[in-house]
Amino acid sequence: MRLARLTPRQRSRPVRAGGGAALIGASQLVQQVPFVVPMPYPAKVTLFVVALLLLAAAPAWYVLRRD
């Protein structure tokens, strides 16, 4: 039970953490696709690069997201 209102920084914590977790989860899913779906090598490399970009975006989302 809270007696006082949350500060703006405290209100943004779930959004920051949830967004970062979603990006990490998406990265993990993209990495698993080449093992489930047969595809040519360039497509596998492209998906791996996308997964790395999503993984790098997660900490950036957490740090830069300021609501």
From TrEMBL:
Membrane-spanning segments: 42-64
UniProtKB keywords: Membrane, Transmembrane, Transmembrane helix
Source species taxonomy: Bacteria, Bacillati, Actinomycetota, Actinomycetes, Micromonosporales
Record protein name field: Uncharacterized protein
Organism field: Micromonospora coxensis
